[in-house]
Amino acid sequence: MRIDWAIVVAVSLAPAAFGQIGNIPGTGFTGAPYSAVETLVTGPDTRTVLLSRDSEGRTRQEYIAHREDGSEAHSVRVIDPAAGVSLSWVVTHDTSSQVATIEPLTQRQRHTGPVPDDPETLPGSRPCGSGCKMEVLPPQQINGFLCRGFRVKRVVRDPETKNSSIQTTENWSSPELGVILRHIEIDVLAGRSTSDVTNIVRGDPDPGLFQPPQGYRVEQASLPGQVGR
Q: Is residue 188 part of a domain?
């Protein structure tokens, strides 16, 4: 059964809760449903994120953390732009911890796609000021989709040592999907980090993925200074 999140928000959430969460890329991009796997690599650490978006523009991220004992921890975040809410929960068999937290969205958080057709309006493609250089790259196929790419090089300064280094950021965006399929960031001081979206399957995912699992309680997020209930 689909929960009427608009009613839940109206009766349980205070306006001060707005703006407490971030975005999920591609939220609100309707008519282009898909599922995929995102692999995040930072130095020796690798994280996996399961991505989903339905035809209505609802998005879902399931983060998979690998514990030292070989087990996995799963946490889920869903953004429903039509209802104007975000949901998050941890996958657990502990019934006392089966809680889904609900928060309202700002207007900006309801839409984070599609990628603009005009390369001049791509993030990072406008003049980026002193110590920064932008380069629009020739389009290429990334994991089966035609992508537009850009590279930004900027001078960054270590706040502790005051030493300067060059940071390079490269993004490859699919206008068809409205998301970044490949992200590369290289920093002389911080090292290299990458994000790659693969195993892309077009079509609507299971609608149940966008609802809390059966048996989970839905509770409002605690506001700053409050103790969670």
A: yes
Residue 20: the pLDDT is 34
Q: How far apart are CA 6 and CA 210, in angstroms?
A: 15
Tokens in use for 215? 């048996």
Q: How far apart are CA 75 and CA 63, in angstroms?
A: 5
Same domain, 206 and 189: no
Q: Are 107 and 212 contained in the same domain?
A: yes
Domain of 144 in residue numbering reads as: 119-199
Above 80 in pLDDT, residue 153?
yes
**DSSP SS3 for 17:** helix
| Interacting residues of 118 by C-beta distance below 8 A, sequence separation 6+ | none
Strand partners, 85: 80, 104
C-alpha to C-alpha distance for 60 and 83, rounded to whole angstroms? 14
Indicate whether 126 and 142 sit together in one domain: yes
- Give burial (CB, 10 Å; 0-12/13-18/19+) of 16: exposed
Three-state DSSP class for 210? helix
Q: SS3 of 10, please? A: helix
Terminal C-alpha separation, the chain:
25
* Global model pTM greater than 0.85: no
Do 57 and 100 lie in a common domain? yes
Residues 18, 53 contacting (CB under 8 angstroms): no
Query: Could you tell me which of 26, 32, 27 has the C-alpha nearest to residue 204?
Result: 32
The continuous run of DSSP H or E covering 138 comes out as strand 132-142
Name every residue whose Cβ is closer than 8 Å to that of residue 208 and which is 6 or more positions away in sequence.
none
